Amino acid sequence: MPRHRTYSGSEAARLLGISLDTLRRWDRQGRIRTERDAANRRRVPVEEVERLRARPDGRELSARNRFAGVVRDVRVDGLLAQVELEAGPFRVVSVVTREAVEELGLRPGAPATAVVKATSVLLER
Fold first, then answer.
1. Total tally of structural domains belonging to the chain
2. Contact at 8 Å (CB) between 114 and 66?
3. Tens digit of each residue's pLDDT (9 = 90 or more) over 39-92
4. Per-residue confidence at 31, pLDDT binned at 50, 70, 90?
5. Do the domain assignments include residue 46?
6. For position 61, what pLDDT does the model report?
7. What's the rounded Cα separation, in Å, for the pair 4 and 2?
8. 70 and 110 within one domain
9. Is residue 1 part of a domain?
10. N or C, where is the chain less crowded by C-beta within 10 Å?
11. What is the 3-state secondary structure (H, E, C) of 8-74?
12. Domain check: are 89 and 38 in the same one?
């Protein structure tokens, strides 16, 4: 029987941007399919990691909390910028680099998405 490629639990967690504890919890909840090796260690098929990393627009990001909205204010001061995003009932404020604001074309009225990962907020457009 041909063997297919798998990742260890810690490799899969790193690739997905989650903790090993989260991977174990997802396995128990049935959110991710895992296998066991001869030593009873979790192995995650490559296809499962690819499935969970896939995004409709082709870009990959493992954050679960995403707030699509509209930029309401951008304040640039030196190398940093403060961006205020209105996302439905939420107001998200993030401090990012001036370069990021310029590269993303963030300006009042522009659509953007706040991606919340742990204590960091990333903006994408």
1. 2
2. yes
3. 999 999 998 888 887 655 545 555 567 788 899 999 999 999 999 999 888 898
4. confident
5. yes
6. 55
7. 6
8. yes
9. no
10. N
11. EHHHHHHHHCCCHHHHHHHHHHCCCCCEECCCCCEEEEHHHHHHHHCCCCCCCCCCCEEEEEEEEEE
12. no
